[in-house]
Write a structure and sequence with these properties.
Largest sheet: 2 strands, parallel
Number of helices: 2
Helix content: 10-25%
Radius of gyration: 15 Å
Structural class: alpha+beta
Strand order of the largest sheet: 1-4
Strand content: 25-35%
Distance between the termini: 34 Å
Amino acid sequence: MPVLFALLPCHHLVVLEAASIVPWLEDAAALEAQRPATSNLKFVNGPSSATDIEGTLVRGAHGPGFLHIILVGSPNS
């Protein structure tokens, strides 16, 4: 199941073209609406974390513990 590999690793690695970054989430949604429909779209904006009853912070509770974004190219290319 490809979704599990994307959501449950300890380290989630993303390679992103710098020119594809948009300033607002609405801009990303508008671009995605122009593409053929997919059955699965996820926005991962940082590492997952949760706090249990005792107040202990747990990273990676519902997804990746660490998010690494590798930018390729320049923003204006």
